[in-house]
């Protein structure tokens, strides 16, 4: 199975090239970076720290979609929308890990998924997807009169979206467990004289600094006690492994929008 990696010079892009190259039955079929990037024309595997393969970084995603079996996209929302369109036009499997998509962009992804299998998840690690299931369960047991839900996340200083896609995913899992919509109860920032906490709200706190790969904690704060569900990623490899697993899982699947929880059977 030939895998194309868009944004192959990025932090996740390089990790994905590595993971693809070492996975049995998969080969790196190509990679792209932003037009004008100094990486265009460089060897895709060489820039990922591997042996030279002769596969060069391109800037034409259309050519990539026409030549590979699956494309993995950890880029930026606007780029992901273009890639979703190309997946729809070519019927190519698309694995999307990009976060920070607006609700309209998520709708566009759903439309593209009518024509191609698309797996979309804000976090591709097994641990976080298990945490999604655990949070949904705990939130279904502890209702708003018993527990206040707060979600804390920390990432490296280069991250451009907040709260993280995973934090929002954890919020969605908690909201689902309580039978409410996250958009109706989310408090994404607090500053100044905020007044007391509203019962049933789900709060977010965002920390940025250093090289933190990704830490998330969901706090269920009750009277006299607290339950905390924490996940800490110490290597981006866990995300790359999940994305590559999703690409393999999607082979032969009908068009549709799939989640990582479906890929993992959780
Ligand atoms: N779902 C998950 O499990 C995970 C998701 N992520 C998400 O993945 C995304 C990327 O993260 P990260 O790797 O740290 O970010 P980086 O900025 O390191 O990488 C993004 C790469 O995409 C490139 N790019 C941007 N636009 C295009 C385009 N149109 N065509 C091709 N390449 C493009 C960028 O190029 P340039 O630098 O020139 O702009 C860059 O090389 C983020 O949204 C992040 O939140 C991250 C980890 C795990
Ligand atoms: O940008 C990152 O680095 C990460 N982004 C994802 C997110 O927004 O949740 C996943 C992971 O935590 C790393």
Automatic annotation (TrEMBL):
Subunit structure: Homotetramer.
Subcellular location: Cytoplasm
Main location class: cytoplasm
Pathway it works in: Amino-acid biosynthesis; L-lysine biosynthesis via DAP pathway; (S)-tetrahydrodipicolinate from L-aspartate: step 4/4
Binding site for (S)-2,3,4,5-tetrahydrodipicolinate: 156, 165-166
Top EC class, one word: oxidoreductase
Organism: Thalassospira profundimaris
Protein name according to UniProt: 4-hydroxy-tetrahydrodipicolinate reductase
Role summary: Catalyzes the conversion of 4-hydroxy-tetrahydrodipicolinate (HTPA) to tetrahydrodipicolinate.
Pfam families documented for this protein: DapB_C, DapB_N
Keyword Iron-sulfur attributed: no
Domain Dihydrodipicolinate reductase N-terminal: 1-124
Taxonomy of the source species: Bacteria, Pseudomonadati, Pseudomonadota, Alphaproteobacteria, Rhodospirillales
